[in-house]
Amino acid sequence: MTTATPSSKAEPAASHEEMTKKAKKKRSLQFHGRDRTIFMLMVAVPTFFHVLLVWVPTLASIFFSFTDWKGFRFSDINLVGFLNYEQIFTAFSRDFFQGALNNLVLLLFLFIGPTVFGMFLAYLLDKNLRGSRFYQSLFYTPVVLSLAVVGFMWQSVIYSTENGLATQLFGAGTDVNWLGNQEYLIAFTDNLGISKNFIAILVAIAWRHTGYIMVLYLAGMKSVDPSLRESSALDGCNEWQAFRHVLFPTLKPINVVVAVITVIEALRAFDIIFVLNTPRRTQVLSILTTNNLLGEGGGNVGRGSAYAVILFLLCLGFVIWYVTNHYRESDV
């Protein structure tokens, strides 16, 4: 009896060790020889280019934001501490706060305008109306166009001062400088407000962004269980009640994706605004970054990098929120 007890305890331990060895052997046999080499290349090559093209410029921007480098010789780099950030919030506060305000207005506009309208279009197309595929293609076409191309189209076709479509429809027979009118539509101070030409740029951005949101919500609506809608109809729900209490709650994952995409799009907006950014008062943080990096006489890489770091931190905050929210729901 006394000798049986140690052997009985040793058997589970031995079996556990054998199972561990088998598991390790099985994992080691998953990739061997040429397969292991191919796997390592598939991991190493994208990682190398990701680090080279994303993180090296990011870390370089953080470093240069603490210097006064003008972009010519590396020997001219001098560390100046937080001087560039101090100048942004003091000497150049007018440009910074106007750019930050425009980014905020763009963000709110994308949520209120294109997001709601894109959801509405997706709801109509989900009803399988006659010609829905044609309308879906029509609304999605601007999404596949380059943002710069969209900007040039609106500049020359829609907002042309003399012959633009907007001028012909709303100009009352007179020339209208849609992109040159720097008057404030809403003025907060003498040097801070929402200009009329920036509102014109927002319309061009909405034309493209609406189709993107429409496709995301349409894909989400197509994946909803039809039995939920049938149950709501049997319970006597009208269209609005069925959408609010049945359909919309099931679109929560899509809502999170749309929210993150909209925030990032609003913060990194550049192409359309750069093309249409002839006058002042339409700049955003990305435009300020580019203008400082590539300004006349070589620009100011230090101050431009500081703008880029501020923009990076704003984007990073929303990305961290999205990742944290995603993994918290996965654990539940």
The CATH top-level class label of the domain at 94-282: Mainly Alpha
Q: Could you tell me the CATH topology label of the domain at 94-282.
A: MetI-like fold
Query: What would you report as the Rg, rounded to the nearest angstrom?
Result: 28 Å
Q: What is the number of beta strands?
A: 2
Overall mean pLDDT score?
Answer: 84
Order of neighbouring strands in the sheet with most strands: 1-2
Share in helix: over 70%
**Major beta sheet summary:** 2 strands, antiparallel
For the termini, the CA-CA separation is: 48 Å
The CATH homologous superfamily of the domain at 94-282 corresponds to MetI-like
Beta content comes to under 5%
The parts where pLDDT drops under 50 for at least 5 residues are none
Helix-strand category: mainly alpha
Number of helices: 14
Order of helices and strands: HHHHHHHEEHHHHHHH
What shape does the CA trace take?
globular
In the CATH hierarchy, the architecture of the domain at 94-282 is Orthogonal Bundle
